[in-house]
């Protein structure tokens, strides 16, 4: 015959219930995980992108911008402006389809980026140009062409222009990537918007450098 199980005395059972209730009340509720997607606007000509949870968390804890960021934006505006001068020479100086398409893409993307950078400065009440900067403040900017080099490019035609355009634009793009490295070295790029823009410049112009090197190899 099976012996009946002994039940815990009522007092003990009640004490256990109270203890469990207390533990439940004292325990911190689990941190809710947001299921709402965070969308990062795409670079000019590219689709938007859904940020990973880690990227979204980084964006929520963005640090304030600093002087290095402002200088980077102003310098990049000047850098992009010269690139538009260079691409502006293309339609009248070459019929090469690949170079014309490349220049058109650069013109569209860098025009959009200029508007983005100017808006960034305006939103923070920062002057688009430093009123205290010297007239030749950009003379030593990485990758910037000299007046003589620009004149040489403007005077060229056909295959000579195509070769010079690729050589000069590769140097110009490499300068932009160096500017990103200089920004990071100066401790800038911690603000989310500038950090994302700098990484885009580094990646996008790196891709264009590789493409231009392929085209340039045809002139060897």
TrEMBL record:
InterPro entries: DUF305_CopM-like, Ferritin-like. It holds the Pfam family DUF305. Residues 27-60 are annotated as: Disordered. Keywords: Signal. Residues 1-27 form the signal peptide. PROSITE patterns: PROKAR_LIPOPROTEIN (PS51257). The keyword Transcription regulation does not apply. The keyword Glycoprotein does not apply. Residues 69-216 form the DUF305 domain. This is Uncharacterized protein (DUF305 family). It comes from Microbacterium immunditiarum. The lineage of its organism: Bacteria, Bacillati, Actinomycetota, Actinomycetes, Micrococcales.
